[in-house]
Design goal:
By secondary structure, the protein is an alpha/beta fold. The chain is about 40% helix and about 20% strand. Strand 16 and strand 17 form a beta hairpin. The protein binds N-carbamimidoyl-L-glutamic acid (NGQ) and zinc ion.
Length: about 475
């Protein structure tokens, strides 16, 4: 349903806002009353003041205000596959048979299609309460596997998509060289991903100023230990550190038991164990899908300060397995969520799926609540905002994440008039209703990203045109990839 853009909506989408007053706002330490939030023209908070009175002329929030959630893992093009792999294609369907279908799409997508799909996706993300996205971007070359005349072509599509939608971007160009442990050559389906280490470092050099112009963060993603041999991993990390000592580093690490077995056969070690012994993993790292770890790996990986990148709906969709979040938390581990293949694009639904997976595995309830935050949706939101910001590389040294001075003004206002929120007295209950009961009829009302109002009445200002372009690109792509 497209809504016409009002003159106010147009004006507020082009001028940075400067303040919002919220009766309830979720600050790093928990819910606070009567909070005045102010930000500067660059879109960073300059004041977060609880116990205030609404100054005249300042916009008042109509419902509880949350920090925007960072989406720490995205492969934008995979949004075009949504709903299309939910049938049994082989005697036993698996992650690996899903990947065959995914490669067909990756093999065919054009730059125009990628930009349209990513723009539509990022608009959906903002509407769903995400304000930052870590794009794990591995389709680099043309359909024949040749570099584009401008080698950065597809990265530029993603930068433009994030700019058009107004979402914060952490761009993670992906290093991909082999099809399996021990340097097995890449398959034809992987031809668009392959890049030498020096070509990757050159790409990062080219992208760095372009990212800086739009406030995007630039990192690097060795795809997996399957795809990057040890020498290349070492050289890439050294090269990256020479360019930017604090750049985020993301890796797919132990998603499938088949991957763990193959790593053991190759090295005698499990993937997380191998990584911890061969790379200096620290708080700049995000371990995506560290699903299969033994007790020692949980303990050691948590101690590095790295963020566990959990993608609950994709991991369920692909039949990966269940991450033991209680064990990770007991070891002091940090975590955040990503929508990965975008089987679902809904920040609340990722939190719901994550908590439910833990309930099913432990036969307990409210598993992710803490002593400080007994309301599980509140506890999870705070943890995922903080871990997500760390993984996105957007934390300032020594400062908190979310609604605090120095951070980007990324705000989500809940709709207090939503049927499941009406009649509730506390922001804890309203956030719980949003996460656990509003399902598929999101209670997000307004979203500001970098201080700019992007979503009103649950709808992005550009949603009509972005959706139309998405549908067109997807239709073309599906026609061209029909088996
Ligand atoms: C990806 N996705 O790179 O898109 C992967 C599948 C692989 C997830 N791991 C491919 N969910 O890991 O080889
Ligand atoms: Zn992934």
């Amino acid at each position: 349903m497209a809504m016409p853009k009002s003159p106010e909506a147009q004006a507020s989408a082009t001028q940075p806002g400067d303040a919002l007053f919220a009766a309830h706002a979720l600050l790093p330490g928990g819910w606070a009353r009567d909070v005045l939030l102010q930000w500067n023209a660059a879109g960073a908070f300059t004041a977060v003041l609880p116990g205030n009175r609404p100054p005249p002329g300042v916009t008042q929030a109509s419902g509880p205000v949350l920090p925007g959630l960072p989406n720490l893992h995205s492969h934008a093009f995979q949004r075009a596959m949504g709903g299309l792999t939910e049938y049994r294609g082989t005697a036993q369907d698996s992650f690996w048979s899903w990947r065959e279908l995914m490669y067909r799409l990756a093999g065919a997508i054009t730059p125009e299609q990628l930009e349209a799909v990513a723009t539509g996706l990022y608009v959906e993300m903002l509407e769903a309460g995400y304000t930052q996205v870590c794009e794990f971007h591995y389709v680099h070359h043309d359909a024949n596997g040749q570099a584009y005349a401008d080698d950065a072509t597809l990265s530029l599509c993603l930068l433009r998509a994030a700019q058009t939608a107004g979402i914060g971007l952490t761009l993670l160009p992906v290093l991909y060289q082999t099809s399996g442990f021990g340097g097995t050559p890449p398959s034809d389906g992987q031809r668009r991903f392959i890049r030498r280490t020096d070509d990757m470092l050159a790409l990062l050099d080219r992208l760095r100023p372009l990212c800086a112009v739009q406030g995007a963060r630039l990192g690097l993603a060795p795809h997996s230990l399957r795809a990057v041999p040890p020498d290349a991993l070492r050289a890439a990390l050294e090269g990256l550190r020479a360019q930017d000592p604090t750049a985020p580093i993301h890796i797919h690490i132990a998603e499938q038991t088949g991957e763990v077995d193959a790593c053991l056969a190759w090295s005698g070690q499990r993937p997380v164990q191998w990584l911890l012994d061969h790379a200096s993993v620290d708080a700049h790292w995000c371990l995506v899908h560290a699903t299969h770890m033994d007790a020692d790996e949980y303990r050691r990986a948590a101690a590095t300060g790295a963020v566990a990148g959990l993608c609950p709906t994709t991991e369920a969709n692909l039949g990966d397995g269940i991450f033991d979040l209680s064990r990770w938390l007991a070891a002091g581990g940090r975590w955040g969520v990503g929508s990965d293949s975008h089987a679902t694009v809904n920040a609340a639904e990722e939190l719901l799926m994550l908590e439910y997976s833990q309930r099913l595995a432990t036969r307990q309830r409210n598993v992710l609540a803490t002593t400080m935050q007994p309301h599980v949706a509140t506890a999870m939101t705070l943890a995922a905002v903080s871990g997500g910001a760390q993984a996105s590389g957007t934390l300032n040294a020594g400062a908190g994440a979310g609604l605090c001075v120095g951070q980007r003004a990324d705000l989500v206002e809940l709709d207090a008039a939503h049927p499941l929120l009406q009649g509730l007295n506390t922001p804890e209950d309203m956030l719980s209703a949003h996460v656990f009961a509003s399902h598929r009829q999101s209670a997000v009302a307004r979203v500001w990203a970098g201080g700019r109002l992007r979503v009103q009445h649950g709808q992005h200002a550009e949603s009509a045109s972005a959706r139309a372009a998405f549908i067109h690109a997807r239709r073309q792509l599906l026609e061209n990839t029909r088996p």
